[in-house]
C-alpha cells in the first residue's frame, strides 16, 4: 500500500494537492482538519470541545485526533492507501500513526513537505478567509500564531521522517499545476522504488 504524509504549514496548499494526488494515485484522502470540522458541525461533544481551541489557533489533543483517524481508517480498510493531510502534527502523533499502520502490516512510504515562505502563507490564508468563512483564516494575528505553533511544535516531525529516510521537501510556490507536477514526480519515484524493491 502507498501511504503518504503530505506536510506543510497552514496555507501551504496541502488540502488542494492531497485531493489531486488522491485522484491521480487512487488513494484515500484523509484530512484530520476536515474530520474535526465535521465533528464541530455535528455539534458532538468532541466538536464543542475542539471548536474553542481551533478559534484560538491551537491544535486538538493528540488522543482525540488519533482516535478519529483510527475510526476513519477502519471504515476505509479497502483503500489502496492513504494520503494524510494535516497529520501527524508532532512526533507523538507520528509514532501513533506508525503503530496504527503496523497493526495491518502497513507503513508510511514517504513524507512530502510543501515549503512556502511565511509571507505567502499569511496572504494565502487571509485570501482563503474571505471566501471560506473560517474564523481562523480571517485574523492575521491568529494566522501568525498558527504558523508559529507549526514551527515550534510540528516542524520537528521532519526529523522523525528524516531519520527513517522518508522525508522529501518540495517547493510549494507557483501554480497549483506546477506544485502538483513536483509532487507527482516524487510519488512516482517512491512507487517505482516500492515495486522494484
> Which consecutive residue ranges, at least 5 long each, have pLDDT under 50?
none
Strand order of the largest sheet: 2-3-1-4-5
- By CATH, the topology is Rossmann fold
Structural class call reads alpha/beta
Radius of gyration: 16 Å
CATH H-level superfamily: P-loop containing nucleotide triphosphate hydrolases
**How many structural units, i.e. domains?**
1
Give the overall average pLDDT.
91
How does the overall form come out from the CA principal axes? globular
**% residues in beta strands:** 5-15%
- SSE run: EHEHHHEHEHHHEH
* CATH hierarchy: architecture: 3-Layer(aba) Sandwich
At the first level of CATH, the class is Alpha Beta
The share of residues in helices is: 55-70%
Question: Count of helices?
Answer: 9
Biggest sheet statistics: 5 strands, parallel
Question: What is the fold's blueprint, element by element?
Answer:
Blueprint: E1 4-8, H1 14-25, E2 28-31, H2 32-42, H3 45-55, H4 62-75, E3 82-85, H5 91-102, E4 110-115, H6 118-132, H7 140-154, H8 157-163, E5 167-171, H9 176-196
Parallel strand pairs: 1-3, 1-4, 2-3, 4-5
Helix pairs in contact: 1-9, 2-3, 6-7
Amino acid at each position: 500500500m502507498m501511504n503518504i504524509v503530505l506536510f506543510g504549514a497552514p496555507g501551504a496548499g496541502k488540502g488542494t494537492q492531497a485531493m489531486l494526488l488522491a485522484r491521480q494515485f487512487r488513494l484515500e484522502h484523509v484530512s484530520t482538519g476536515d474530520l474535526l470540522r465535521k465533528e464541530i458541525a455535528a455539534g458532538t461533544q468532541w466538536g464543542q470541545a475542539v471548536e474553542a481551541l481551533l478559534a484560538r489557533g491551537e491544535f486538538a489533543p493528540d488522543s482525540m485526533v488519533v482516535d478519529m483517524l483510527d475510526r476513519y481508517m477502519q471504515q476505509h480498510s479497502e483503500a489502496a492507501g492513504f494520503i494524510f493531510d494535516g497529520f501527524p502534527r508532532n512526533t507523538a502523533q507520528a509514532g501513533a500513526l506508525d503503530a496504527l499502520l503496523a497493526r495491518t502490516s502497513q507503513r508510511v512510504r514517504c513524507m512530502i513537505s510543501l515549503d512556502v515562505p511565511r509571507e505567502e502563507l499569511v496572504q494565502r490564508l487571509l485570501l482563503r478567509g474571505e471566501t471560506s468563512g473560517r474564523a481562523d483564516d480571517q485574523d492575521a494575528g491568529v494566522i501568525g500564531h498558527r504558523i508559529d505553533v507549526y514551527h515550534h511544535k510540528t516542524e520537528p516531525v521532519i526529523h522523525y521522517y528524516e531519520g527513517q529516510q522518508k522525508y522529501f521537501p518540495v517547493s510549494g510556490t507557483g501554480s497549483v499545476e506546477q506544485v502538483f507536477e513536483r509532487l507527482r514526480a516524487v510519488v512516482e519515484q517512491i512507487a517505482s522504488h516500492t515495486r522494484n524493491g
